[in-house]
Design a protein that fits this description.
The chain is mainly alpha-helical. It has one domain. Helices cover 84% and strands 0% of the residues. α1 runs antiparallel to α2 and α1 crosses α3.
């Protein structure tokens, strides 16, 4: 495997890690909603930001790798 392919794999694995962390919080999302307004906002934030990062890393990994591995223009 080339370094570009390994980096793309690493980006996708990092996206899966963020997806896992977002899904771990998912069951507490429903129990935290009934705790209060400030608790509700924190639980939703703890769920939303890992899911957003996971979406970006998994869906746009190719664009991210292309941005990091710019081809030299002659």
């Amino acid at each position: 495997m080339k370094s570009k392919e390994l980096f793309k794999l690493a980006v996708r694995l990092l996206g899966l890690i963020f997806l896992y962390h977002g899904l771990v919080i998912f069951p507490t999302l429903f129990t935290g909603i009934f705790g209060g307004i400030s608790n509700e906002i924190m639980v939703i934030l703890m769920f939303a930001w890992p899911m957003l990062v996971a979406y970006v890393l998994l869906r746009h990994a190719a664009q991210f790798v292309d941005f990091c591995y710019l081809e030299p223009e002659d």
